[in-house]
Structures are given as C-alpha cells and as structure tokens.
Amino acid sequence: MIADRFFSSFEEGDPVPLAGEIGAGPAESPTAKAGVGFTGLRALRYDRPGRVRLFDVDVPAGEHTGLSYVVFPERGTSVALDVELDDGSTLTDVLDPKALYPDQWNLVRRPLPPGRVRAIVLAGGDDAGWLDDVRISDRPPRRRDPVDWVRTTRGTHSSSEFSRGNTFPATAVPHGFNFWTPVTDASSTTWLYEYHRRNDATNRPRLAGFALSHQPSPWMGDRHTFHVIPEGDLAFTHEHETGRPHHYGVRFDSGLTVDLAPADHAAVFRFTFPGEAKIRFACKRGGIRVDPKRGTVTGYTWVRSRLSVGARRMFVHGAFDRPGRRDGKALAFGTATVQLRIATSLISAKQARRNLDAEIPAGTTFEQVREDARQAWQDLLGRIELDGATEDQLTTFYSGLYRLFLYPNSAHEETPRGRRHASPVVRRWWPSTRRRTGAKVVDGPMSVNNGFWDTYRTCWPAYALLTPRKCGELIEGFVQQYREGGWIARWSSPGYADLMTGTSSDVAFADAYLKGVRNFDVEAAYDAALRNATVAPPRRGVGRKGLHESIFLGFTPLSTHEGLSWALEACINDFGIANLAAALGRADDAAYFRQRALHYVHHFDPRTGFFQGRHRDGAWRWSPQDYDPARWGFDYTETNGWNTAFSVPHDGQGLANLHGGRAALESKLDAFFATPETGRNPGSYGGIIHEMTEARDVRLGQYGHSNQPSHHIPWMYAYAGAAAKGQAVVREVLTRCYLGSEIGQGYPGDEDNGEMSAWYVFASLGLYPLAVGSPGYVLGAPLFRRAEIALENGKHVVITTSGSGPYVRRLRVDGEPHEQAWLSHDRLVTGATLEFELAAEPSEWGTPPPSLTEGDAPPRPLADLPGRSTHPTLSDDTSRTQLTFTSPPAIEFTVDGPPRPVELYTLTSGAHGSPTAWVLEGSEDGQTWQVLDERAGETFRWRRQTRPFALTASAAFPRYRLRITAFSGRRLSLAQWELLAGER
C-alpha cells in the first residue's frame, strides 16, 4: 500500500512551489504528449542554476519513506530533487545524470533517511526542463511471486521516433496462438498502445477498445485484428490498470471495469458497467455477425500489414453468458455485468467454435481462466529465484522473462484430425470464404513470429538453457516451414517476409542441438541450414542475398545491398553449421564451413582497421581518407562501421590477430567506447532514423545497446584479455539502460521478440552466450546477491556474489578456483555452483575464452585457386551461369603461379541433371594423372547447390582434371567447379 505524505502535480489545488514557473509542459517529445504535464495539464518549468528551494514542508520520514518525481530534461541531465531534514542534512546518494533521457519524462525515486523533511530542493547546474508529480510517500517492501512482478506495459512509452521498447501489453499464454491487448488507436496495425502520447485533451489515457493481435513488432505490423469495444467513456489512469501476462484489467473514470484473461486460442472478458452493459465489435477488413438471441458473435478478419506475408483469414467465435438485444451497433444485455468467451481459428469458423469449447467451455469462470494462465507463467518465471534484487530489478528481470517466453508463437490447432495448421508458407491461391480458409491445411506443428537476426543472439540460447523441451518444439515448428515451403523464414510474420540480414535460424538451431536439445528433426533442420548456405535463393524473401557469388569470391560485393552485414552474419551462421556438421558426422561439410566462417577476413581493410564493403573486383568502397566509421548505412545494416568492427563473436582471437594482438583489440574497444555517437551522420539513410537517436542517447561512446548488432561488443573484451573493462560497461547498461518500468519505459531501443530482455536476464546472471553456435558462456559480474535456476533436468544452478562492485575479483565453480572467463554449457547444466567475489576495482581475473583461431597469426582461410579452365564458365565465380553436357565431360584446370596445396573442392549443380560420380585428378605435366579423390552415388538435393568435398590428403599440382563418370537425367549441367587451397 502506497501512502502519500506530500504530493504536487502543479494542478489547481496542489501545493504551490516557491520558485519556478508553472506552465503547459514540454512543447515536443518523441514519446510523450506535448503541451501537458506528465499527468494533468501543467508542470513546473525549471531553468535556474544552483540549489532552489521549491517547497517548505513538514513531513515525517520513516523506514520506507521515499521521494519521487518525474523530470523532463531539455538542457542537461544533472538535475535532481533533494530534501533538507530538520537536522540540516541532505540526501547523500549520488544520482547518475546519464540515467536520465533528454527530451523524455523520467521517473526518479530516492530513499529518505528517517527524520523530518523540512524542504524539497531543486539542485542542478545550467539545466533546464520540466518537473511533475513531486511526491513523498511510504512504499513498504512487497513480497510477490515472479509472475506478479511483470508489467506488460513496459516498453509502451514509445513511438516510431524513439523506442523505449516498442512493445504492447500482450495478454497471452506462453508462446500462445493469440495476443489480446488494450489499444489506444483501433485504426493502427503498428503502434497499438501508446502509454502517454495518445492521451486525451485532459491528458488522461484513453482506450479505443480491446484487440485481438498477432503483432511481432510495430515495424512488421499487425494482422488479424478484431476489436471488442465497451460502450462508454474509456478514459482512465495507469494507476487503475493491471498489466500482467495472465490478466489485463482497467477501471475507467466512468466506473466501467474490464478484465481479460487468456487461453491459447481463446480468451474471456468480464465487463462491469455502471449501468446497462453495452458492447460492440469492429473489424477494419472482415465480416462480423451478431446473434442477439443466442448471445454470439461470429465472423472473420483479414486485416494484415504489408509485411504480414502468408497471412490469410482468421475466424472468430464468441459467446456471451446471456442473450442480448440490438442497441444500434451494440449488443445490450439488461444487466451491469456480462462475460464474453471468445476464440479464434486460422482454419475455419467451425474450428474456432471447437477451440472455444475445448479451452473455455460454457460455465468456466473468469477466475479459472485467469488462474490457469497465471500458473502457466508462474511455472516458467519461477524457475529462476532471485535474492537481493530491488523491486525495480525484480520487475525488469521477470518482465524480461515474460517478453522472452511470449515469442515465438504457435500457429497450429487441435482438430478432429489431430494437430493441424493453415500453412503460411505454401503458395496456394484458393479463395477464402466466410467459413473456411483458402490456405493449405497441413498436419503438424507450426511456429511463427520471430525475426532470427534479432533473436539468435540471446533468445534462442535462453530457450536452450531454461526451457530445452519447449525449445525443441519451437524449432520443430520452424522446421515445418522448411518441409512445406522449402525454407525457414528469416523473419516469420507469419511467412517469408523479406526483411533483415542473415539466415540466423542456422546458428540458432545448431546452438540448441549442441547444447543438448534433441526433440526436433535435426536432419531436416540441418538440411534447411544447408540450403540457406549453399543455394542462391529463388526469391527475395528467403535465403541469403548475394550467395550466388559470395560463396566463390569469399566476400559479398557491393551489388548486394548492405553486403558486408550479409557477409559477417554468414560467417556466424557458417560457424554454427560447421559445428553441427561435425556433431552429425558430416566431415566434409564441417571442414568447408569452418573455412567459410573465417571469410570475415576478406572484408577487413587493414588500411583503416575496419570492415567495409568491396566491389566485385576486390576494390574497397572507400579510400582510407574517405572512410568514416561513424557513417551509418551503406555496407551496414541499421548501424555503422564502429558497431560492426567487432562482429566476429565466434572468433575473437582471429579478430585480435587482424589488429595485431589482444592488446590492439583492447585498444580498439577502448576507442569505440570513448568515441561519442552524435546521431547526426545518416550516411546512406539520407536522414535521421530512430536507431541513430537512440544510440546517441545511450551515451556509451559508439556503443548502441539500443540495437541488437551491438549487444555482444562489451563481452568482446574477454577475447582481448581485459574482461574487467567489459564488466564495467555491462554493469552500467544493467543499472541505467533498463529503467522506467513504472511509466511504460524499461528499454533503450526496440525490444524485438524478447531479445533485449534476454540480454538483461543473461547479463544480470553473469552469463553471456557470446559465441552462439558453440556450447559455452562468457562470464561477467552478476547483479544479484543470489540467483538459483531450476533446470528441466532436475539440476540447479546457484550463482552467488560476495563483496560489491562491477568487477570480478575471484570465482569458484563447485568450490574450485576458476580462472577462465568462460564456462561450458555441459558444466553448467549438470548442476553448478558459481561463487563470485566482486570488487570496486578491476582485477586481472579471466583468461580469454576459446576461439576458432588459435595462435597469434591472422586467419587465412582456404581460397579459390587462381587459374585457367578448359571451360571458363565453371570458374567465373557465380552460380547463375552454367554449362550443359550430353555426355560425361572431362574438365581441366591449369594453375596460375606456383601450385598451392588443395584441401577442398566444390561442385555446383546447374538447372538440369547433376553429377553422381566423378574422379578428381592431379598432374605435373598434363600427361600422367594421379587420382586425388573419387566419388560415387552422390546426390545434389537442389538445383544450383554448392557441395564441398575434402581430400584425404592435401595435394599441390600445376594441373587438375575433373572427370564426371555418371550423372542424373538426360543432360548434365554444372555451374561451378572450385579448388580451395591454403598457403604453401
């Protein structure tokens, strides 16, 4: 219970300040309503330097008394409210000015010592801005279950101009079929619920209704929206709002209350009106039918954003607990309280009714549905217990777990014929009707709503560690996309959206398998990854862009938009494929992809010390004098050269060697964190985008924690042998970049599908999956005194800290000293106790983690052997050309320059028959030939697929010959033959 001892919002009747000018509030903000206070219509303007006495008060302060306020800095962020006590003392805790965001409202809480408060004082330099909601109140500590710490409104104080999460208050079961959410803009498929900016003329939050949603991100847009709208005045305050995963509730100013609880395909609403209950329904694109006598609502919705690729119709079936009557566009019920059960289906109207009857049968109470959903969340969130966390940290941590387990979503249903789904990836042009979908209905599971470029870094490793059984089920649902459509979506919303960089399901699923997740079809998952990595995609929404030539050039040229980012993501994914191939016994593939994982070296410009793009002939995009690492765009996806300079998390030693050693890598990282981001260098974007502004306002040099490509960078200090420096950055991010939960903030940028939340969860526990695709974690300084993770295998991981500070002084694992700055997954999941001793000063603790590259030499991957072929098309470095043969050919290749040892070779099939048997030979003189490799019974799974083959022993000859001895079909077509050689 919160009891106010003093409060002023600078409205009529509130205590009047002794200084400052009461006005209409900030003129503009990227996230808040302009021209008003945070609450109410007025706020206090401050712009006087020094200490200014605002209020004379006489307020007793007890054990749990604190001062709070919201502040909107326009110039400078060192402003703070202080108090003067009756003994003349003031507050001693020091506030970090970087914890305040400029041009946004910020909530600040300061504990008060016991005594009597005589004055509230404004302290600042030359700062200027606005102040509101000054409060002295008692806040006794609360004990709650993990699920009850969650705030689903975290991240909603956002807009397209500046993201504090860009979330919406989704009420759902974990990984559920539907979301249900309040909306402040019923016409939108993007920003559904804005915490403050869409407040009404009196600055009260106001809902436009309650929506069915499937939005993965506002940038992707929503689909299948359908609105339930209680008639009446829907203005409210956030203090009268409950935002939990299992229960959204609100009491409007009018006295109307609405409560919502979710099932998987269904939900239940409970409405309590001050008078007669009246409810209407709306759907921007669809059809709705209401039957007053039966008290039912049925229909379909085919609302979909531009990026909702593969979305067809969704069917709705709802039933009230009593009949009603028509009252204009609404149903009226002659009573104040009414309950609505409602369910959906992607298959048919009949299936929607089945889903309702199965999940919320008639007679089910609201409390039953709510408690079932609550228990589902508590079972997940309760697997991690924290000791020593503040209330804000508990909210941040468990809200992060909620976001993590909200996505991906299921798209399947339990039907009389078993588990089935309307496929979002099979192209089928049958028309949908008002009763059934035109999509192909297929047996099996289906997972959707995931942007793998965002989530592979932290979400998928978190699933593999915390919920491995569910992780395998989710993977199986995505593998089903491959079975049906031939590919796994890069961005599933729900089908093959053409967005973002890399085919990151490759490394995510490899990582899960290597960490012991086994309940999915790993052979099919491997095939999907192999196709991504070896076959140029037939259309834009699938596969890797630029692959038709990057395979052979060793880099992705400028002809591919943001080709450098595609190249670096490919290296990470190839690293995962190599490790998975080795685990599955595919030795040739493992050797080949291990080499390809090193291709980042071909984009490293030693003249500048940065990665940059190259023309097809190998020339760099920029000369050293024209290159600017702070310039956004061009070769870089949503970032710049600085934030891409460390995008080799799988091979930190190799990156260090490119720079000249670990000390040089440390120096590069130091420069990165010391170089300010101005947010004013848009490069190819042509204008300021929200990611630039957000990165600037993080105020950690160039480090843009506001966006996923940068999230690994502090941990790269471990590879440099300077783990303590990374620990300091991580602690600063944890303590000031995730603030604002109570006012709808909580994130410094887009919280995409749980990724930014999962970063917080991992980092606060002192673990980070830096080299995704290998089973291990880099270690850091945990945030809490004690954390205990209950694993699915019955084991427990216990993480404790002693001492204080952001640095690790010592670590003991299971009672034994542990000097390595990393720990294997196997060691963790067999049950481990990690005892960290922390310090305020950095230490030398932490030897570097293992890396793909060993030793001090720069990586030198195998390279395409230069030379002349009797069939030049087969060595023109593109799979788009081909030669066709009607009889088995013999193709010769003469090396340019001294012979180099060939270790691997690749063949790329064409559009027709492919080779099934062949002999590779070498010769010194072109007359006598030596067999180097012989194959039979080979299969190329796809057209224009590149397959690698390893020699049993490397061979260096001036001449090579490939004799095809058998092929499939009437004609043979080949696109490329490549010999991969190392240094002599």
TrEMBL record:
Gene Ontology molecular function terms on file: carbohydrate binding; peptide-N4-(N-acetyl-beta-glucosaminyl)asparagine amidase activity
What biological-process terms (Gene Ontology) are attached? carbohydrate metabolic process; glycoprotein catabolic process
InterPro entries the UniProt entry points to? 6-hairpin_glycosidase_sf, GH-type_carb-bd, GH92_a_mannosidase_put, GH92_N, Glyco_hydro_92, PNGase
UniProt domain Glycosyl hydrolase family: residue ranges? 351-839
What GO cellular component entries does it have? cytosol
Comp. bias (Polar residues): 870-885
Q: Which residues form the Glycosyl hydrolase family 92 N-terminal domain?
A: 149-326
Top-level taxon of the source organism:
Bacteria
Return the annotated region ranges for Disordered: 840-885
Q: Show the Gene3D superfamilies listed in the entry.
A: 2.70.98.10, alpha-1,2-mannosidase (1.20.1050.60), alpha-1,2-mannosidases domains (1.20.1610.10), GH92 mannosidase domain (3.30.2080.10)
One Pfam family from the record:
Glyco_hydro_92
Q: Which PANTHER family match?
A: PEPTIDE N-GLYCANASE PNGASE -RELATED (PTHR12143), PUTATIVE-RELATED (PTHR12143:SF43)
User: In its UniProt entry, what is this protein called?
Assistant: Alpha-1,2-mannosidase, putative
Task: State the species of origin.
Answer: Amycolatopsis sacchari
